[in-house]
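Internal tracking record. Fields below are filled automatically when a chain is submitted to the structure queue. Please do not edit lines marked as system-generated. If the sequence contains nonstandard residues, flag them in the REMARKS field before resubmitting.
Queue: standard
Priority: normal
Entity type: single polypeptide chain
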Amino acid sequence: MSKHAIHSENAPAAIGTYSQAIRTGDLVFLSGQIPLDAATMDVVEGDFEARARQVFENLKAVAAAAGADLNQVVKLTIFLTDLDNFATVNGVMEDYFDKPFPARAAVGVASLPKGVDVEADAILAL
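SYSTEM-GENERATED OUTPUT FOLLOWS
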């Protein structure tokens, strides 16, 4: 098995011991993205929808660095500290994904890094 790290300057730098994404074969595993601005490494301002959009912008940037786009995502996991935001995530996803939508799980969690309320990771197929 070979694995190759994927990195994008247009997505937040890793804040721990992980890569933004790893490619093995025709699969790319995108690490969880939180709503950080890549330039400042600060959480974006605004409401939950703005934060959710930033998460998908970050995933989009990493997918592009892998030579792909979000429509090649086959599995998406979304972590929410408040499941009442689930409907908003669905609306935001419609702007980033075409049908058929990826397989997905939405997981309610107690907390996320930097105190944010949303994180998502993905697997895409090249």
